Amino acid sequence: MNAFFIKIVLLFILVPDFSFTEEPEPDFKIISFEEFEALTSADSEKLRIYNFWATWCAPCIREMPHFEQASKDNPELELIFISMDDGRRPERVTAFIEKKDIQSPVYLLNDVDFNSWIDKVDKSWTGAIPATLFILPDGKRRFHEGELEATALQDLIDQLKP
Amino acid sequence: MKTTATLALTLLTLLCLSSPSFGQNEGYSIGDEAMDFELTNVDGSRVSLSGMENAKGAFVIFSCNTCPYVKAYEDRMIQLHEKYAPQGYPVIAINPNDAQISPGDSFDAMKKRAEEKDFPFPYLHDETQEVIKAYGGSRTPHVYLLNKENGKFIVKYIGAIDNNYQDASAVTKHYAEDAVASLLKGQNIAEETTKAIGCSIKWTRKSE
């Protein structure tokens, strides 16, 4: 009995990753625009999709499940949600992630000096959300301002994916 | 039959994706003449650019009830109006959102918001979305500063109110105010266009 108890204790000590949660927590962090640019300019063999959204934006929330589904269906994709929510209240975003069971990483881009960076994401972007930036493995970019329906998103992915 | 329908849908999708979405590349540029309009105000009156007495121009601001960025800027819109209406540049707020899509932006909701905030400026309903389409507004809030020149309203500034929606005391660039101040001094406007993250316009869906 005593030996069994020691074995259990050892298990916890020796296997630090042992965890009772069944699903991994989705990746959430607050980033600067410089960190966003570093992400987008990194090398990748995948079609990267950066979807700009916010918890209060109805059309953004409507299109989110299409992006999550596309990410599940297409392993050659890497989807990251870029939140435009208030950086002073990240709990609004983390609560949303939990409630809606968002699986993809969510980064809150915390830079309200919008005019200093919108053109760097894409010159055609007027600043309205939702908006989505696609980056191909060769670094080419495609930008879409406005809500995407599931079929339109899949058509775009089929056109762009490696 | 089904194939034709699928083909038509695919073509339509491609067309939508390849064309600039929702008129974002259309509308006015700096120096263009802005159209006049006559829209219903929350007090029931009709308001037009040409009907404003003693105006040297106006801040036409596409606005609404439901956007958190608009809410963050409402007090600053009031201040802008109180400071510059006496100098000839009143604020005219226009809600272009379709109430079918965004019920919180209905005319009744506009009246309520105007009363709550005691707006000193007109708050108009662009029910047909004709005005926002002509101007090329794409988000709320979206500012167009107009200057009256030989009886025409000329676009002098397009963009954001300032560079910090979260905290008025942390603003380092007062774009809209700097633009009108330059006009009043007869100087060139340093930044004629700026961008900001904003809420998308709730466009009326075309009936099939």
Write the layout of secondary structure elements.
The complex is a heterodimer of chains A (162) and B (208).
Chain A: H1 2-14, E1 28-31, H2 33-41, E2 47-53, H3 58-73, E3 77-83, H4 90-100, E4 106-109, H5 118-121, E5 128-129, E6 131-135, E7 141-145, H6 150-160
Chain B: H1 2-18, E1 38-41, E2 46-48, E3 57-62, H2 68-84, E4 91-95, H3 107-117, E5 123-125, H4 130-135, E6 139-140, E7 142-149, E8 152-159, H5 175-185, E9 198-200
Parallel strand pairs in B: 3-4, 4-5
Antiparallel strand pairs in B: 1-2, 1-5, 3-7, 6-9, 7-8
User: What is the general shape of chain A?
Assistant: globular
The biggest sheet of chain B amounts to: 7 strands, mixed
Alpha-carbon distance between the two ends of chain A:
57 Å
Structural class of chain B: alpha+beta
CATH superfamily of chain B: Glutaredoxin
Strand order of the largest sheet of chain B: 2-1-5-4-3-7-8
Assembly type of the shown chains?
A: heterodimer
* Mean pLDDT across every amino acid position of chain A: 90
Low-confidence stretches of chain A: 15-21
If you consult CATH, what is the topology of chain B?
Glutaredoxin
For the CA atoms, what is the radius of gyration of chain A? 19 Å
Strand order of the largest sheet of chain A: 1-4-3-2-6-7
Low-confidence stretches of chain B: 10-24
Question: What percentage of amino acids of chain A are in beta strands?
Answer: 15-25%
Number of strands of chain B: 9
What is the top-level CATH class of chain B? Alpha Beta
Specify the structural class of chain A: alpha/beta
Q: How many E-type strands of chain A?
A: 7
Would you give the CATH topology of chain A?
Glutaredoxin
Determine the CATH superfamily of chain A.
Glutaredoxin
